[in-house]
Design brief:
methionine biosynthesis, Cbl-indep_Met_Synth_N, about 40% helix, binds zinc ion, about 775 residues, eight-stranded parallel sheet, binds glutamine, transferase
Length: about 775
């Protein structure tokens, strides 16, 4: 029989219950016991959902109050002393590492949090010491939660992060120099104990995630797999059978590891949504009894699974391995999908029928497993309905907009390039814009005050009319223009008061997007995002930002900068389509934005910034051809969106980071006249790449951190600029903050910008 399995379930609950409980606990409004009880309730509910859906292998220990990697840090007692020394209650020590702790005389910042592979989830980085030791906590969480499920009548498969991934995803603590992977031998005994305890508790199998196998691995990490898994396999019947899970990529380039290290493990899980082509070669690597878990239901997106395609893949595996050696599974944990489609009451029926959230995906794995076990007749209705949805989506007018397709077919190479090279453009821009040296500007948003949020809410709820709201926005724009006059900035912005979110705002004005009301996914800790969904071909029915920018320009005496979110960021911060390549979606977005850019120019906006903070995070996990491909279409889409303007119009772009070393050629290829980047928290040396590569255009490395309310002094800013001038030419340098100011208060914003402008004036006089 072919079993069905889920690799992990979202933790938040139907109505973001976990977020609410956590935040109430942090705010002192919920007791510790009530918080723990809420966690228990959510786990029980999620197990039951999967059981009722007919899932055979249900995960446990996939739940976490904050983050599953952090759970492991605490369970292994890999807790830096600055947290452990306070002898906090375990749950408080846990949150202290996740989000910092500032209470009762204890003041510790959080551990570093970083992106989980190429998803929008963030994990807490294991932070290790030179003399690191590991011990297993008493009453370890995986055992406790396994028993809790067992009590509820559900036998689960506990999920652990594997020892190699745990270390490889970690780092040495500040001032330490340990190479995390060198700690493997010290860590393995803890895994052995844990596996033995799980077995004693009754676990027959355990899922050990080793997602780092999809990376290009340094030799040391690669070599760690063999000793690790030989040791764990040696436990034999003292441990549960091991399923090693990989996801978010293929493992073909690490086959030597798979062959050597995993010989004696029970099963291997691979992601066949991302990389279906790895199936046959992975099968060849398997030992003669090993089981293959086929991830055919997408854990990273919201689309209904195409049963026909998924079944074909599973059948290929069955033909080679037999039914008892195949498991039907989600491609990865469902952590990256919203809880349930049932909560959506406002989606158009047509598109709702195309979606599947976590609860629905749990049913999908069960249905596919049944189909291949008992034959198609056993689930005929499901398959027929699925085929009907697939057909409807493929034939829908939303996914077949002839005008969009026609326009895409007419895109030429020429459309990607500005009319003249930068020196000629710059000569014209100089005349046209009349900017001083060291021009000052901001990144777009000004403080999103309470009044702004209240007014937007009222408008959304219909409590004020469109005209009233528009008047309110105009008043906000007047105010920020006046403030910029007073501050004596050089290039103004309108402040983005009308924008809820930099992607959603555009999504709502474009054809081809859909929005959920409850489609939240965890980003980190209690923070969730609700990405818009690209459901069809993208087009722009009418101008999206011209009214506000034009109004702002009409009342300013200095150049007003138009503000758009770039095609890659719109794509990356949405759920993309899975029926056409992302490069096509990016091109559609680019064409829509191109029209907006041209309209802005026609309305008298001669400086236009197209933000692409998500460009870097879209980089494929492995270097090589895939990465080059991505960069090539990503750069093309940016250029297509911006190249429609005259030479005299200045194109800016913005990035919230400053590590460009590994893809500098792509940043240079954007051909933006001015780049503003994060720099205040990074080493100014990172700017060296700009001289090394003889970058000719203009750059505004952020001179102060906008994440903190702290006001930088004029001297600090000058010190920063001095450092920058070691790497950039004076006539190349812009002076601006790191990023948008929307999360700040006006008080510190004005003070910081005053110091920034004074610093710029000082350099203008000096040079
Ligand atoms: N223009 C946006 C703002 O200032 C940019 C935000 C971002 O880079 N994330 O808010
Ligand atoms: Zn930014």
């Amino acid at each position: 029989m072919v079993q069905s399995s889920v690799l992990g379930f979202p933790r938040m609950g139907r109505l973001r219950d976990l977020k609410k409980a956590n935040e109430a606990y942090w705010g002192g409004k919920l007791s510790r016991d009530d918080l723990l009880a809420e966690g228990k309730r959510l786990r029980q509910e999620h197990w039951k959902i999967q059981k009722d859906a007919g899932v055979d292998i249900i995960p446990s220990n996939d739940f976490a109050f904050y983050d599953h990697v952090l759970d492991h840090i605490q369970m292994f007692n890999a807790i830096p002393e600055r947290y452990s020394q306070h002898k906090l209650d375990p749950i408080d020590e846990y949150f202290a590492m996740g989000r910092g702790h500032q209470k009762d005389g204890v003041d510790v910042p959080s551990l570093e949090m970083v992106k989980w592979f190429d998803s929008n989830y963030h994990y807490v980085k294991p932070t290790l010491q030179d003399n690191q030791t590991f011990t297993l906590s008493s009453d370890p969480k995986p055992v406790r939660e396994f028993l809790e499920a067992k009590d509820a009548g559900i036998t689960t498969r506990p999920v652990l992060l594997g020892p190699v991934s745990f270390l490889a995803l970690g780092k040495a603590d500040r001032g330490q120099s340990v190479d995390p992977i060198s700690l493997l031998e010290k860590l393995l005994p803890v895994y052995e104990q844990l596996l033995e305890q799980l077995k004693k508790a009754g676990a027959e199998t355990v899922q050990i995630d080793e997602p780092v196998l999809v990376f290009d691995l340094p030799k040391k990490v690669k070599d760690a797999f063999k000793p690790a898994y030989e040791k764990l396999s040696k436990l034999g019947s003292k441990a549960p059978q091991i399923v090693v899970a990989t996801y978010f990529g293929d493992i073909v380039h690490n086959f030597d590891v798979v062959k050597d290290a995993f010989q004696n493990i029970y099963a291997l899980h691979i992601d066949l949504v991302r990389n279906p082509e790895q199936l046959e070669s992975v099968i060849e690597q398997l030992g003669s009894k090993q089981v293959l878990s086929c991830g055919v239901v997408d854990g990273r997106n919201i689309w209904k699974t195409n049963f026909k395609k998924a079944t074909e893949l599973v059948e290929t595996a069955i033909q080679k391995l037999g039914k008892d050696r195949v498991i039907v599974s989600t491609s990865s944990s469902l952590l990256h999908t919203p809880h349930t489609l049932d909560s959506e009451k406002q989606l158009p029926e047509e598109v709702k029928d195309w979606f599947s959230f976590a609860c629905q995906k749990a049913s999908e794995v069960a249905v596919i497993a049944k189909a291949v076990t008992e034959g198609p007749a056993s689930v005929r209705e499901h398959y027929e309905a699925n085929a009907k949805s697939m057909k409807a989506r493929a034939e829908s007018e939303r996914t077949n907009n002839a005008e969009v397709k026609d326009r895409q077919s007419k895109v030429t190479d020429e459309m990607h390039n500005r009319k003249s090279p930068f020196p000629e453009r710059y000569a014209q821009q100089k005349q046209h814009l009349k900017l001083p040296m060291f021009p000052t500007t901001t990144i777009g948003s000004f403080p999103q005050t309470k009044e702004i949020r209240i007014s937007r809410n009222k408008f959304t709820k219909g409590e004020i009319t469109a005209e009233e709201y528009e008047k309110f926005i105009e008043k906000e724009i007047q105010e920020v223009v006046k403030i910029q006059d007073e501050l004596n900035l050089d290039v103004y912005v309108h402040g983005e008061p009308e924008r809820n979110d930099m992607v959603q705002y555009f999504g709502e004005r474009l054809e081809g997007y859909a929005f959920t009301t409850h489609g939240w996914v965890q980003s980190y800790g209690s923070r969730c995002v609700r990405p818009p969904i690209i459901v069809g071909d993208i087009s722009r029915p009418k101008a999206m930002t011209v009214k506000e920018s034009k109004y702002a320009a009409s009342i300013s005496k200095k150049p007003m900068k138009g503000m758009l979110t770039g095609p890659i960021t719109c794509l990356r911060w949405s759920f993309p389509r899975d029926d056409i390549h992302q490069s096509e979606q990016a091109q559609q977005l680019a064409l829509a934005l191109r029209d907006e850019v041209v309209d802005l120019e026609a309305a008298g906006i001669y400086v236009i910034q197209v933000d692409e903070p998500a460009l870097r995070e879209g980089l494929p996990l492995r270097s090589g051809r895939e990465r080059e491909n991505y960069l090539s279409w990503a750069v093309d889409s940016f250029k297509l969106s911006t190249a429609g303007v005259k030479d005299s119009t200045q194109i800016h772009s913005h990035f919230c980071y400053s590590e460009f070393q590994d893809f500098f050629h792509a940043i240079a290829a954007l051909d933006a006249d001015v780049l503003s980047i994060e720099n205040s928290k990074s080493d100014a040396k990172l700017l060296k790449v700009f001289i090394d590569e003889a970058y000719p255009r203009h750059i505004g490395p952020g001179v102060y951190d906008i994440h903190s309310p702290r006001v930088p002094s004029e001297q600090e800013i000058k010190d920063r600029v001095d450092e920058m001038l070691q790497y950039l030419k004076p006539d190349q340098l812009w002076i601006n903050p790191d990023c948008g100011l929307k999360t700040r208060q006006w008080k510190e914003t004005k003070a910081a910008l005053t110091n920034m402008v004074n610093a710029a004036i000082y350099y203008r006089e000096k040079y």
